Amino acid sequence: MARDGAARSSKTFNPSPGKESSDGRIGNLILRSLPRKESSQLLPLMEFVRLKLHQVLHEPGEAIRSGFFLNNGLGSLLTTHPDGKTVEVGLTGNEGFIGLPVIFGFKTSALRVVTQGEGTAYRVEVDTLLRMLPRCPELEKQLQRFSMLLGMQSTQLAACNRLHEVTERLARWLLMSHDRIGNDNLPLTQEFLAQMLGTRRASVTEAAGALQKAGSIEYSRGSVNILNRAGLEESSCDCYQAIERQKKRWQDEVS
Q1: How many CA atoms are closer than 13 Å to the CA of 21, on its beta-carbon side?
Q2: Each residue of 196-228: pLDDT tens digit?
Q3: Which residues are CB-contacts of 166 (< 8 A; sequence separation ≥ 6)?
Q4: Closest CA to 2 of 121, 171, 174, 133
């Protein structure tokens, strides 16, 4: 597995994801925001890794041994129930970090984190990260800010899952995933979408059919192709825009 020591010295807080990087370059926006002094200390201690579709990065209740700064791809944060059912309560792409509980002194997470699609990341051992945080104040600040973004997103998604129809929620979910994956084709099955949305497969089929009839997506076995993003935004509930507005508001406050 390759390692990479390149870094940028931008000091801006930018939680909006962009398209990067499958070849070892830095695509993670937290890492790209670090001053050179911090990145030069941190990056040699991290490992560039390739992530597979539906790879489990953390399990609930298990010790978190590694954190992941995604370069590209998508991580789903899932709450699991004793009967095996799961509901997605958060999404992160290259704007964030997987393993947040450890920066607040916790060793485990209540959530399962699963990748959606192939991607790459910089993996760091938890002990290494905790040792470096006192020497990297900008990194610590960016991780704390991202934890607020993720908490805000999870709160909005909890309300969304309770209040809105499946078609609206599916449109919102596709928009959020599209933002992070950066590809119009999303490798998704009915069963997986049902798990993400906490609903029945039949409901997903009906919702996807409605979006396809409207010309927003093309839905086939195992994949969704986004044809009309504006149409998806029209079909989505207002939760997508609510999340984006708050992200922009916080970004403006710290710029």
Answers
A1: 20
A2: 787 888 888 899 999 999 999 998 877 899 999
A3: 197, 199, 203, 204, 206, 207
A4: 121
- Residue 24 pLDDT: 55
pLDDT tens track for 68-103: 999 998 999 999 888 878 888 999 999 999 999 999
Residue of 119, 79, 65, 130 lying closest to 96 (CA atoms): 119
Give the per-residue pLDDT at 197: 81
Of 111, 67, 73, which is closest to residue 93 (Cα–Cα)? 73
Contacts of residue 99, Cβ cutoff 8 Å, sequence gap at least 6: 58, 64, 66, 67, 68, 109, 126, 129
| Domains of the chain, start order | 29-158 (2.60.120.10), 165-236 (1.10.10.10)
Model confidence, pTM? 0.85
Q: With left for phi above 0 and alpha for psi between -120 and 50, is residue 61 left, alpha or beta?
A: left
The contacts of residue 238 (CB under 8 Å, 6+ apart) are none
Helices 166-181 and 239-254 meet at what angle, rounded to 10?
40
C-alpha 27/C-alpha 42 separation (Å) is 15
Cβ neighbours, 10 Å, residue 54: 13
| Closest CA relative to residue 120, chosen from 50, 177, 172 | 50
Cα-Cα end-to-end distance for the chain: 36
